[in-house]
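Saturday, quiet lab. Running sequence design on the C-alpha coordinates for the scaffold JK sent over.
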Protein backbone atom coordinates (compact mmCIF):
# COMPACT_ATOMS: atom_id res chain seq x y z
CA UNK A 1 0.00 0.00 0.00
CA UNK A 2 1.37 3.41 -1.00
CA UNK A 3 1.81 5.92 1.82
CA UNK A 4 1.37 9.71 1.69
CA UNK A 5 2.94 12.00 4.30
CA UNK A 6 0.95 15.21 4.93
CA UNK A 7 2.85 17.99 6.70
CA UNK A 8 0.91 20.95 8.15
CA UNK A 9 0.71 22.63 11.55
CA UNK A 10 -3.06 23.18 11.30
CA UNK A 11 -4.55 20.18 13.14
CA UNK A 12 -8.13 20.84 12.05
CA UNK A 13 -6.98 21.00 8.42
CA UNK A 14 -5.13 17.68 8.83
CA UNK A 15 -8.18 16.01 10.36
CA UNK A 16 -10.34 17.27 7.52
CA UNK A 17 -7.98 15.80 4.92
CA UNK A 18 -7.82 12.47 6.75
CA UNK A 19 -11.63 12.23 6.74
CA UNK A 20 -11.77 13.05 3.05
CA UNK A 21 -9.08 10.52 2.16
CA UNK A 22 -11.02 7.67 3.79
CA UNK A 23 -12.81 7.25 0.47
CA UNK A 24 -9.43 6.40 -1.10
CA UNK A 25 -8.05 4.10 1.59
CA UNK A 26 -7.89 1.26 -0.95
CA UNK A 27 -5.41 3.31 -3.00
CA UNK A 28 -3.12 4.89 -0.38
CA UNK A 29 -2.70 5.34 3.35
CA UNK A 30 -1.99 8.57 5.27
CA UNK A 31 0.53 9.59 7.90
CA UNK A 32 0.85 13.15 9.22
CA UNK A 33 3.44 15.54 10.69
CA UNK A 34 2.96 18.93 12.35
CA UNK A 35 6.11 20.53 10.90
CA UNK A 36 9.28 19.75 9.00
CA UNK A 37 11.10 18.25 11.98
CA UNK A 38 8.33 15.73 12.57
CA UNK A 39 8.31 14.98 8.85
CA UNK A 40 12.04 14.22 8.87
CA UNK A 41 11.50 11.70 11.67
CA UNK A 42 8.60 10.12 9.78
CA UNK A 43 10.76 9.77 6.69
CA UNK A 44 13.38 7.93 8.75
CA UNK A 45 10.93 5.47 10.29
CA UNK A 46 8.43 4.85 7.48
CA UNK A 47 8.51 4.20 3.74
CA UNK A 48 6.94 7.32 2.27
CA UNK A 49 5.83 7.38 -1.37
CA UNK A 50 4.72 11.03 -1.65
CA UNK A 51 4.97 14.17 0.49
CA UNK A 52 2.25 16.84 0.65
CA UNK A 53 3.53 19.84 2.60
CA UNK A 54 2.56 23.34 3.60
CA UNK A 55 5.23 26.06 3.44
CA UNK A 56 4.48 28.21 6.49
CA UNK A 57 5.18 26.14 9.62
CA UNK A 58 7.04 26.62 12.93
CA UNK A 59 10.46 25.17 13.80
CA UNK A 60 11.30 23.69 10.36
CA UNK A 61 9.20 25.18 7.56
CA UNK A 62 8.25 23.72 4.21
CA UNK A 63 11.21 25.27 2.39
CA UNK A 64 13.68 23.56 4.70
CA UNK A 65 11.77 20.30 4.35
CA UNK A 66 11.83 20.50 0.56
CA UNK A 67 15.58 21.20 0.68
CA UNK A 68 15.99 18.10 2.88
CA UNK A 69 13.94 16.02 0.46
CA UNK A 70 16.09 17.26 -2.42
CA UNK A 71 19.27 16.08 -0.69
CA UNK A 72 18.14 12.84 0.97
CA UNK A 73 14.94 11.63 -0.73
CA UNK A 74 15.20 12.88 -4.31
CA UNK A 75 13.02 10.03 -5.60
CA UNK A 76 9.94 11.08 -3.59
CA UNK A 77 7.36 13.26 -5.39
CA UNK A 78 6.48 16.53 -3.63
CA UNK A 79 3.24 18.52 -3.68
CA UNK A 80 3.46 22.00 -2.15
CA UNK A 81 0.37 23.62 -0.60
CA UNK A 82 0.54 27.40 -0.53
CA UNK A 83 -1.47 30.61 -0.73
CA UNK A 84 0.64 33.30 -2.32
CA UNK A 85 -1.76 36.02 -1.23
CA UNK A 86 -1.74 38.27 -4.29
CA UNK A 87 -3.62 38.06 -7.60
CA UNK A 88 -0.30 38.16 -9.46
CA UNK A 89 1.02 35.15 -7.59
CA UNK A 90 -2.25 33.28 -7.95
CA UNK A 91 -2.14 33.87 -11.72
CA UNK A 92 1.36 32.41 -11.77
CA UNK A 93 0.36 29.34 -9.74
CA UNK A 94 1.04 26.51 -12.16
CA UNK A 95 2.59 23.08 -12.22
CA UNK A 96 6.30 23.75 -12.44
CA UNK A 97 9.22 21.48 -13.10
CA UNK A 98 9.55 18.75 -10.53
CA UNK A 99 7.15 20.39 -8.07
CA UNK A 100 3.40 20.16 -8.08
CA UNK A 101 1.47 23.05 -6.54
CA UNK A 102 -1.98 23.31 -5.09
CA UNK A 103 -3.49 26.51 -3.80
CA UNK A 104 -5.15 26.98 -0.43
CA UNK A 105 -8.06 26.74 0.17
CA UNK A 106 -7.69 23.25 -1.25
CA UNK A 107 -9.80 21.93 -4.12
CA UNK A 108 -10.07 18.37 -2.80
CA UNK A 109 -10.77 16.80 -6.18
CA UNK A 110 -7.70 18.42 -7.73
CA UNK A 111 -5.58 17.35 -4.75
CA UNK A 112 -6.65 13.71 -5.06
CA UNK A 113 -5.88 13.78 -8.79
CA UNK A 114 -2.37 15.15 -8.12
CA UNK A 115 -1.71 12.56 -5.42
CA UNK A 116 -2.80 9.66 -7.63
CA UNK A 117 -0.63 10.93 -10.49
CA UNK A 118 2.30 11.33 -8.14
CA UNK A 119 1.92 7.83 -6.77
CA UNK A 120 1.67 6.46 -10.32
CA UNK A 121 5.18 7.75 -11.01
CA UNK A 122 6.87 9.01 -14.20
CA UNK A 123 4.79 6.72 -16.41
CA UNK A 124 1.86 9.06 -15.74
CA UNK A 125 3.83 12.20 -16.57
CA UNK A 126 4.73 13.12 -13.00
CA UNK A 127 8.44 13.77 -12.45
CA UNK A 128 9.77 12.68 -9.08
CA UNK A 129 12.36 14.46 -7.02
CA UNK A 130 13.20 18.12 -6.38
CA UNK A 131 15.56 20.00 -8.69
CA UNK A 132 17.57 23.07 -7.72
CA UNK A 133 15.94 25.17 -10.46
CA UNK A 134 12.43 24.33 -9.21
CA UNK A 135 13.44 25.09 -5.64
CA UNK A 136 14.82 28.50 -6.63
CA UNK A 137 11.62 29.32 -8.50
CA UNK A 138 9.62 28.31 -5.44
CA UNK A 139 11.58 30.87 -3.38
CA UNK A 140 10.86 33.52 -5.99
CA UNK A 141 7.13 32.77 -6.19
CA UNK A 142 6.63 32.75 -2.43
CA UNK A 143 8.79 35.89 -1.99
CA UNK A 144 11.06 34.08 0.44
CA UNK A 145 13.99 35.79 2.22
CA UNK A 146 16.84 33.38 2.96
CA UNK A 147 20.42 32.34 2.34
CA UNK A 148 21.06 29.08 0.50
CA UNK A 149 24.27 27.10 0.82
CA UNK A 150 24.50 24.64 -2.05
CA UNK A 151 26.92 21.72 -2.15
CA UNK A 152 27.81 19.61 -5.19
CA UNK A 153 30.67 17.27 -4.39
CA UNK A 154 33.66 19.42 -3.45
CA UNK A 155 31.98 22.59 -4.75
CA UNK A 156 30.09 24.99 -2.47
CA UNK A 157 28.11 28.08 -3.42
CA UNK A 158 25.91 30.60 -1.64
CA UNK A 159 22.82 32.41 -2.98
CA UNK A 160 21.04 35.30 -1.23
CA UNK A 161 17.30 35.91 -1.65
CA UNK A 162 15.28 38.79 -0.26
CA UNK A 163 11.50 38.81 -0.83
CA UNK A 164 12.02 36.26 -3.60
CA UNK A 165 14.58 38.41 -5.42
CA UNK A 166 18.05 36.93 -6.04
CA UNK A 167 20.41 39.62 -4.74
CA UNK A 168 23.85 38.02 -4.89
CA UNK A 169 25.76 34.76 -5.13
CA UNK A 170 29.28 33.47 -4.56
CA UNK A 171 31.12 30.29 -5.48
CA UNK A 172 34.87 29.97 -4.93
CA UNK A 173 36.40 32.96 -6.76
CA UNK A 174 33.16 33.82 -8.60
CA UNK A 175 30.77 36.54 -7.48
CA UNK A 176 27.35 37.85 -8.51
CA UNK A 177 25.86 36.65 -11.80
CA UNK A 178 28.87 34.53 -12.76
CA UNK A 179 28.60 32.61 -9.50
CA UNK A 180 24.85 32.13 -10.02
CA UNK A 181 25.39 30.82 -13.57
CA UNK A 182 27.86 28.28 -12.20
CA UNK A 183 25.74 27.14 -9.25
CA UNK A 184 22.56 26.48 -11.25
CA UNK A 185 24.53 24.25 -13.63
CA UNK A 186 25.61 21.85 -10.85
CA UNK A 187 24.11 18.38 -10.59
CA UNK A 188 23.30 16.23 -7.55
CA UNK A 189 23.20 19.18 -5.16
CA UNK A 190 22.50 19.38 -1.46
CA UNK A 191 20.66 22.49 -0.26
CA UNK A 192 20.97 24.11 3.16
CA UNK A 193 18.62 26.98 3.97
CA UNK A 194 19.01 29.77 6.52
CA UNK A 195 15.91 31.96 6.92
CA UNK A 196 18.05 35.10 7.21
CA UNK A 197 19.50 37.11 4.32
CA UNK A 198 22.68 39.03 5.15
CA UNK A 199 23.06 40.59 1.69
CA UNK A 200 21.89 44.20 1.43
CA UNK A 201 23.06 45.24 -2.03
CA UNK A 202 21.55 43.85 -5.24
CA UNK A 203 24.51 42.70 -7.34
CA UNK A 204 22.59 40.44 -9.75
CA UNK A 205 20.48 42.36 -12.25
CA UNK A 206 19.36 39.45 -14.46
CA UNK A 207 16.03 37.71 -13.83
CA UNK A 208 16.07 34.30 -12.18
CA UNK A 209 14.61 32.84 -15.38
CA UNK A 210 17.55 34.13 -17.40
CA UNK A 211 20.02 32.87 -14.78
CA UNK A 212 18.55 29.36 -15.04
CA UNK A 213 18.57 29.28 -18.84
CA UNK A 214 22.03 30.77 -19.21
CA UNK A 215 23.39 28.36 -16.60
CA UNK A 216 21.90 25.49 -18.59
CA UNK A 217 23.42 26.80 -21.82
CA UNK A 218 26.87 27.10 -20.23
CA UNK A 219 26.60 23.58 -18.87
CA UNK A 220 25.78 22.31 -22.36
CA UNK A 221 28.70 24.30 -23.72
CA UNK A 222 31.06 22.76 -21.18
CA UNK A 223 29.79 19.25 -21.89
CA UNK A 224 30.17 19.75 -25.62
CA UNK A 225 33.75 20.98 -25.17
CA UNK A 226 34.55 17.68 -23.45
CA UNK A 227 32.71 15.73 -26.18
CA UNK A 228 33.31 17.64 -29.43
CA UNK A 229 30.87 17.19 -32.32
CA UNK A 230 32.30 15.26 -35.26
CA UNK A 231 29.49 15.85 -37.74
CA UNK A 232 30.87 18.26 -40.34
CA UNK A 233 27.50 19.90 -41.01
CA UNK A 234 27.01 20.73 -37.33
CA UNK A 235 30.59 22.02 -37.16
CA UNK A 236 29.73 24.36 -40.03
CA UNK A 237 26.94 25.92 -37.98
CA UNK A 238 29.18 26.17 -34.96
CA UNK A 239 26.43 25.17 -32.52
CA UNK A 240 25.70 26.78 -29.20
CA UNK A 241 28.82 25.03 -27.95
CA UNK A 242 31.07 27.51 -29.77
CA UNK A 243 28.90 30.62 -29.66
CA UNK A 244 28.24 33.13 -26.89
CA UNK A 245 24.80 34.48 -27.80
CA UNK A 246 25.24 37.62 -25.73
CA UNK A 247 28.47 38.63 -27.52
CA UNK A 248 27.29 38.15 -31.09
CA UNK A 249 27.53 40.91 -33.68
CA UNK A 250 24.17 40.47 -35.34
CA UNK A 251 24.90 42.71 -38.29
CA UNK A 252 26.74 39.89 -40.02
CA UNK A 253 28.28 40.88 -43.36
CA UNK A 254 27.29 38.82 -46.35
CA UNK A 255 24.24 37.23 -44.77
CA UNK A 256 21.19 36.91 -46.98
CA UNK A 257 18.57 36.99 -44.25
CA UNK A 258 16.36 39.58 -45.88
CA UNK A 259 14.48 36.89 -47.81
CA UNK A 260 12.92 34.61 -45.23
CA UNK A 261 11.43 31.29 -46.26
CA UNK A 262 7.69 31.03 -46.76
CA UNK A 263 5.55 28.20 -45.46
CA UNK A 264 6.07 26.37 -48.73
CA UNK A 265 9.71 27.34 -49.13
CA UNK A 266 12.96 26.05 -47.74
CA UNK A 267 13.24 26.50 -43.98
CA UNK A 268 16.78 25.13 -44.11
CA UNK A 269 17.77 27.95 -46.48
CA UNK A 270 16.33 30.60 -44.18
CA UNK A 271 18.34 29.37 -41.21
CA UNK A 272 21.56 28.65 -43.06
CA UNK A 273 21.56 32.20 -44.45
CA UNK A 274 21.20 33.58 -40.92
CA UNK A 275 23.71 31.97 -38.52
CA UNK A 276 22.23 33.78 -35.54
CA UNK A 277 18.78 32.34 -36.23
CA UNK A 278 20.36 28.90 -36.62
CA UNK A 279 22.00 29.26 -33.23
CA UNK A 280 18.70 30.30 -31.67
CA UNK A 281 17.01 27.20 -33.11
CA UNK A 282 19.80 25.06 -31.66
CA UNK A 283 19.22 26.76 -28.33
CA UNK A 284 15.52 25.87 -28.40
CA UNK A 285 16.26 22.25 -29.25
CA UNK A 286 18.55 21.96 -26.22
CA UNK A 287 15.64 22.36 -23.78
CA UNK A 288 13.62 19.13 -23.35
CA UNK A 289 10.79 21.16 -21.78
CA UNK A 290 9.97 22.60 -25.25
CA UNK A 291 7.65 20.15 -27.06
CA UNK A 292 7.40 22.06 -30.34
CA UNK A 293 8.44 25.40 -31.78
CA UNK A 294 7.51 27.74 -34.61
CA UNK A 295 9.53 30.76 -35.73
CA UNK A 296 8.03 33.20 -38.23
CA UNK A 297 8.82 36.59 -39.64
CA UNK A 298 6.40 39.38 -38.78
CA UNK A 299 5.03 39.07 -42.30
CA UNK A 300 3.88 35.56 -41.43
CA UNK A 301 6.55 33.63 -43.35
CA UNK A 302 7.56 30.46 -41.51
CA UNK A 303 11.30 30.30 -40.86
CA UNK A 304 11.35 27.16 -38.73
CA UNK A 305 8.99 24.52 -37.38
CA UNK A 306 9.72 21.58 -35.13
CA UNK A 307 7.04 19.19 -33.88
CA UNK A 308 4.17 21.21 -35.43
CA UNK A 309 1.94 19.19 -37.85
CA UNK A 310 0.41 22.08 -39.81
CA UNK A 311 0.45 25.84 -40.37
CA UNK A 312 -2.68 26.66 -38.34
CA UNK A 313 -0.65 27.00 -35.16
CA UNK A 314 1.86 29.28 -36.90
CA UNK A 315 -0.95 31.53 -38.19
CA UNK A 316 -2.47 31.74 -34.70
CA UNK A 317 0.95 32.57 -33.17
CA UNK A 318 1.48 35.39 -35.67
CA UNK A 319 -2.00 36.78 -34.98
CA UNK A 320 -1.46 36.68 -31.22
CA UNK A 321 1.94 38.36 -31.41
CA UNK A 322 0.77 41.18 -33.67
CA UNK A 323 -2.36 41.75 -31.57
CA UNK A 324 -0.36 41.76 -28.33
CA UNK A 325 2.09 44.27 -29.76
CA UNK A 326 -0.74 46.58 -30.84
CA UNK A 327 -2.41 46.30 -27.44
CA UNK A 328 0.90 47.08 -25.76
CA UNK A 329 1.28 50.23 -27.83
CA UNK A 330 -2.32 51.26 -27.11
CA UNK A 331 -1.96 50.94 -23.33
CA UNK A 332 1.58 52.29 -23.20
CA UNK A 333 3.23 49.07 -22.00
CA UNK A 334 7.01 49.26 -21.77
CA UNK A 335 9.25 46.58 -23.26
CA UNK A 336 8.29 43.56 -25.30
CA UNK A 337 5.57 41.39 -23.81
CA UNK A 338 4.74 37.70 -24.12
CA UNK A 339 1.50 35.71 -24.05
CA UNK A 340 0.73 32.33 -22.48
CA UNK A 341 -2.23 30.10 -23.37
CA UNK A 342 -3.32 26.88 -21.64
CA UNK A 343 -4.40 24.36 -24.28
CA UNK A 344 -7.05 21.67 -24.00
CA UNK A 345 -4.47 19.02 -23.03
CA UNK A 346 -3.18 21.35 -20.23
CA UNK A 347 0.03 22.07 -22.13
CA UNK A 348 0.98 25.74 -22.58
CA UNK A 349 1.60 27.82 -25.68
CA UNK A 350 4.13 30.60 -25.12
CA UNK A 351 4.23 33.38 -27.73
CA UNK A 352 7.14 35.86 -27.82
CA UNK A 353 7.72 38.75 -30.20
CA UNK A 354 11.26 39.87 -31.04
CA UNK A 355 12.51 42.72 -33.17
CA UNK A 356 12.03 40.84 -36.47
CA UNK A 357 10.72 37.39 -35.57
CA UNK A 358 7.82 35.79 -33.72
CA UNK A 359 8.32 32.62 -31.70
CA UNK A 360 5.69 30.16 -30.50
CA UNK A 361 6.68 27.42 -28.07
CA UNK A 362 4.54 24.58 -26.78
CA UNK A 363 5.65 23.28 -23.37
CA UNK A 364 4.30 20.47 -21.22
CA UNK A 365 1.67 20.88 -18.51
CA UNK A 366 4.29 20.48 -15.78
CA UNK A 367 6.51 23.32 -17.09
CA UNK A 368 6.50 26.86 -15.74
CA UNK A 369 6.73 29.01 -18.92
CA UNK A 370 7.54 32.44 -17.46
CA UNK A 371 11.23 31.67 -16.70
CA UNK A 372 11.63 30.36 -20.26
CA UNK A 373 10.21 33.61 -21.61
CA UNK A 374 12.40 35.76 -19.35
CA UNK A 375 15.46 33.78 -20.34
CA UNK A 376 14.87 33.79 -24.10
CA UNK A 377 13.76 37.40 -24.59
CA UNK A 378 17.25 38.98 -24.30
CA UNK A 379 18.54 36.61 -26.98
CA UNK A 380 15.41 36.86 -29.15
CA UNK A 381 15.66 40.66 -29.27
CA UNK A 382 19.11 40.35 -30.87
CA UNK A 383 17.93 38.35 -33.90
CA UNK A 384 17.70 40.47 -37.06
CA UNK A 385 16.38 39.55 -40.50
CA UNK A 386 17.57 42.76 -42.13
CA UNK A 387 20.51 42.70 -44.49
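Result came back. Writing it out in full:
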Amino acid sequence: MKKVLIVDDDESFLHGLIEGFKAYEDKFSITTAGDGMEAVEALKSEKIDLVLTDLKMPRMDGFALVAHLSSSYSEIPVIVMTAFGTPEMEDNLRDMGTFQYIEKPIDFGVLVEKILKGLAGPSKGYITGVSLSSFLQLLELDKKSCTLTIHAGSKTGVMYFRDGDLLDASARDLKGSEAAFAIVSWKNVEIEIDNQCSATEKKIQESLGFILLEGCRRKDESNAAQNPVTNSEEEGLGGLDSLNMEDLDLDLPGSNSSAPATAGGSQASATSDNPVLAQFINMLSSFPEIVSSTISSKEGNILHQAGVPDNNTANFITYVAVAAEQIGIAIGASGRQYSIFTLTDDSKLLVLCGQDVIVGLKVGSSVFPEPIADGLRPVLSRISLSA
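Notes for JK: The longest strand covers residues 155-162. Residues 49 and 276 are 46 Å apart (CA to CA). Ask whether to fix the surface positions before the next round.
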